[in-house]
């Protein structure tokens, strides 16, 4: 998933608790606060899904047919649902009617669907429809798309919103294969986290196959005016025709990224790696749906400066999709490991300087977050304990960067060659399984540290995983390119040289670093001089522009006001818009302005973004 710190806002108030997964085996304990299901009793192995997409009703209607394994020979199957209407349930090939009941609904976790089965039952079919307010479904109007002609639908099911559009065992410790038939109106294409079509058909009926078992939150669906363009033998881009040519040029390095990742961590096991560019309302940078990463259109800048985001989502093809965290307490095994893989892939493709800049930015963000939430906050551990409570969600970002630093420490302690070999065997050993932190540490001790007293003395595993804050032995990160930017800014500010800044080869990271170094004494007139020199207000790069707009709010640079509203109208990515609304609310004349802009543009935002911004606007 996207490695932006605002990602954690999207989890709103979800409390999650572990199930237990046996290494190489089935789920053996499904008791978890986030699920009503008991996969240790009855496990879902395969899904046959048939759905009709109705844009007028904002509804999916169809059947979910499950092939089940009754491990305890019990007489009931329990599934997670939220806001679903159940029209009927049958069992077996003969579709014998089955008794079922829906329990009392909970505002977060929905309600259990309990189905009567026998110990011999192997097939259960549920006829159902979704509600118009299903949280995982984002219905996008034509005007909100790049082409402005046809509607769009996409799902975002993380961490356990799959239950809002599919009755299931909605925990990452369950994995299943699936096939699907999706019916849409003619002129639209349907895509899933599966083997996908590469062109529209006249019938509007699309069939899908996902032969590898995946967790429920990775089942994904998108429908819209979509076309495909290949960027390599096994890579390509799906997008609205209005943006497809630019998007495919932007992402033509993706094939090289896949090859580099394979050289480091073993074969890519999902067939193709394609990217779908979503409408601007998508609230994240990306979502790592297997075979088909969902990505924000803000990465399409024309200069490939933001495609490093794809390295993160590609990294999830190993850490997250191939080897999945068994519970959300173990999420660092997804996001921390992936952040490490992301920077290793970026280093191999774009150079060490590029990866070092990202590492410095990540460490800065982590230090800020630890100061904000408290370094002794138990939610700043790698292995979490989220039972029966809603944690400070911003603290959940810690697992990205603290996890990265942990793996970087292990690399430095063991040596890169040896560490890479260990990771490769880890991905091979646990391929297509969901694992716990305990399984990871046991495997690490058995395969890498068992007879290495130096390595054991260097790395305190327990401290890193179970202690809040950041251990003192965290690796130091620095960037030569950032140091050069800082040197130039000092010269420029002191007037020690008449020469202008040498910015010709600057990357996005360097420009943002430059803007963040500008002094608090900067005036609106000073911003105007910078704008005349570098044309920041007209930047097509969302990273640079959003940083500039924040400075404009802080220093009263009203020349950028019209661009600020245009940006807030055309961008739904929370990494950018949430800080801008928050900054507006801190200025004397910004409170009313923020509320008025939000009312004018909110129809283009994802429900998560709307909820987050409403929280900011109601705080004052």
Radius of gyration, whole Å: 24 Å
Instruction: Please give the CATH class of the domain at 323-466.
Output: Mainly Alpha
- Structural class based on helices, strands and sheet pairing: alpha+beta
- Order the strands across the largest sheet as they lie in space: 7-6-10-4-3-13-15
CATH superfamily grouping of the domain at 323-466: Neutral Protease Domain 2
Helical stretch count?
A: 18
What is the beta-strand fraction? 15-25%
By oligomeric state, this entry counts as single chain
Compute the average pLDDT: 90
Care to count the β-strands? 23
CATH architecture of the domain at 323-466: Orthogonal Bundle
| Parts with pLDDT < 50 across at least 5 consecutive residues | 3-31
Terminus-to-terminus distance:
32 Å
Q: In this structure, how is the largest beta sheet organized?
A: 7 strands, mixed
**Anisotropy-based shape:** globular
Helix content: 25-40%
- CATH topology value of the domain at 323-466: Neutral Protease, domain 2
What can be said about this structure in brief?
By secondary structure, the chain is of the alpha+beta class. Helices cover 35% and strands 20% of the residues.
What does this structure look like?
With 620 residues, the protein is α+β, with helices and mostly antiparallel strands. Among the domains are: 323-466, Neutral Protease Domain 2 (Neutral Protease, domain 2, Orthogonal Bundle), CATH 1.10.390.10; 518-617, Serine Threonine Protein Phosphatase 5, Tetratricopeptide repeat. The chain contains 18 helices and 23 strands. The strands form 6 sheets. It has a 7-stranded mixed beta sheet, with no helix packed on it. A 5-stranded mixed beta sheet has the order 17-18-19-21-20. It has a 4-stranded antiparallel beta sheet with strand order 11-12-16-14, with no helix packed on it. A hairpin with a 4-residue loop joins strand 17 (227-230) and strand 18. Helix 12 (508-516) packs parallel to helix 14 and helix 16 (574-585) packs parallel to helix 18. It is globular and about 85 Å long.
């Amino acid at each position: 998933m996207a490695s932006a710190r605002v990602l954690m806002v999207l989890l709103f108030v979800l409390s999650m608790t572990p199930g237990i997964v046996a290494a190489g085996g089935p789920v053996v304990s499904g008791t978890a606060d986030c699920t009503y299901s008991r996969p240790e009793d009855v496990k879902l192995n395969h899904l046959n899904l048939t759905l009709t997409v109705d844009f007028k009703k904002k509804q999916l209607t169809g059947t979910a047919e499950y092939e089940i394994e009754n491990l305890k020979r019990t007489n009931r199957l329990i599934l997670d649902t939220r806001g679903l209407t159940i029209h009927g349930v049958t069992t077996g090939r003969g579709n014998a009617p089955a008794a079922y009941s829906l329990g009392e609904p909970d505002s977060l976790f929905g309600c259990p669907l309990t189905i009567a089965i026998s110990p011999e039952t192997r097939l259960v079919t549920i006829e159902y429809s979704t509600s118009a307010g299903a949280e995982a479904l984002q219905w996008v109007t034509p005007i909100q798309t790049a082409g402005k002609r046809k509607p769009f639908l996409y799902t975002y099911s993380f961490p356990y919103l799959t239950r809002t559009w599919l009755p299931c065992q909605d925990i990452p410790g369950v994995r299943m294969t699936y096939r699907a038939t999706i019916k849409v109106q003619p002129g639209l294409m349907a895509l899933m986290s599966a083997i996908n079509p590469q062109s529209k058909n006249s019938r509007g009926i699309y069939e899908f196959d996902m032969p590898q078992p995946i967790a429920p939150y990775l089942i994904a669906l998108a429908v819209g005016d979509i076309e495909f363009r290949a960027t390599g033998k096994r890579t390509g881009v799906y997008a609205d025709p209005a943006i497809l040519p630019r998007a495919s040029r932007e992402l033509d390095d993706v094939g090289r990224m896949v090859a580099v990742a394979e050289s480091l961590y073993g074969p890519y096991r999902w067939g193709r790696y394609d990217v779908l560019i979503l409408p601007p309302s998508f609230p994240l940078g990306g979502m790592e749906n297997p075979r088909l990463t969902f990505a924000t259109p803000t990465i399409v800048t024309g200069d490939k400066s933001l495609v490093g985001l794809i390295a993160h989502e590609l990294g999830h093809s190993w850490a997250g999709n191939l080897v999945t965290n068994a519970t959300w307490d173990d999420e660092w095994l997804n996001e921390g490991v992936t952040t490490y893989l992301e920077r290793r892939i970026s280093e191999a493709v774009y150079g060490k300087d590029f990866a070092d800049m990202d590492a410095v930015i990540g460490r800065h963000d982590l230090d800020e977050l630890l100061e904000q939430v408290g370094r002794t906050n138990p939610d700043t551990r790698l292995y979490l304990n989220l039972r029966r409570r809603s944690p400070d969600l911003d603290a959940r970002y810690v697992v990205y960067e603290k996890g990265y630093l942990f793996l970087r420490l292990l690399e430095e302690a063991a040596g890169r060659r040896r560490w890479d070999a260990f990771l490769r065997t880890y991905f091979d050993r646990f391929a297509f399984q969901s694992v716990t932190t305990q399984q990871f540490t046991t495997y690490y001790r058995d395969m890498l540290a068992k007879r290495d007293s130096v390595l054991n003395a260097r790395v305190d595993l327990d401290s890193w995983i179970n202690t809040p804050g950041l251990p003192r032995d965290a690796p130091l990160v620095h960037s030569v390119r950032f140091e050069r930017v800082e040197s130039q800014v000092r010269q420029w500010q002191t007037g020690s040289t008449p020469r202008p800044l040498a910015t010709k080869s600057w990357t996005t990271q360097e420009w943002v670093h430059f803007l963040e170094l500008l002094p608090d004494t900067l005036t609106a007139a000073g911003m105007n001089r910078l704008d005349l020199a570098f044309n920041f207000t007209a930047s097509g790069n969302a990273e640079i522009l959003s940083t500039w707009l924040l400075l404009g709010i802080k220093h009263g640079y009203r020349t950028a006001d019209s661009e600020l509203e245009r940006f807030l109208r055309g961008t739904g990515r929370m990494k950018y818009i949430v800080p801008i609304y928050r900054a507006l609310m801190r200025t004397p004349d910004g409170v009313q302005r923020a509320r008025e802009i939000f009312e004018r543009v909110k129809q283009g935002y994802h429900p998560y973004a709307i909820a987050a911004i409403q929280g900011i606007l109601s705080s004052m």
